Amino acid sequence: GFLEYCRKVVAVWRDHPVFQRRHFFQGRAIRGGDVRDITWLTAQGKVMTDADWHAETARCLGIQLSGDLIHEVDEQGQQITDDTMLMLLNSSPSDVSFVLPAAPDGSGWWPVLDTAHPQRRASRKAGGASLKLAARSMMVLQLRESLTQRVQRAVTRAVRGSGHNKK
Question: How many structural domains are present in the chain?
Fold first, then answer.
């Protein structure tokens, strides 16, 4: 029951450095790119504007945390990276349909925590898909790469770490 759910919440926090940042988010595109370290989203999956914060629909919002823009290093001096995570929050007394942000080809959003359905088995949701978020609930989703993308990323990290890419 509740104790098992709390253990799961702690495990998600422990296993994902994107939730353990020691520095403030910038909230804007970093180094001229299109990706932000934190992005606030409407239920339509769009970046929130100033007007959105004051609208009735602001009772449901998403917070996307980019795992590639943590800007911290580990004990060995290696850049810390993680999967991108999405927190969906619904304080409304009604269920809300939430449009998930776009996902790179082969990637998908996987629910890892759901306060409305803690025992539900996770299934992949495509970027741009609509997801029902229960009234007064929170859901955390993880952007997972395809197996091919994970292998390519691991090879790139191994090459960087081996010194073979140095001149």
Answer: 1
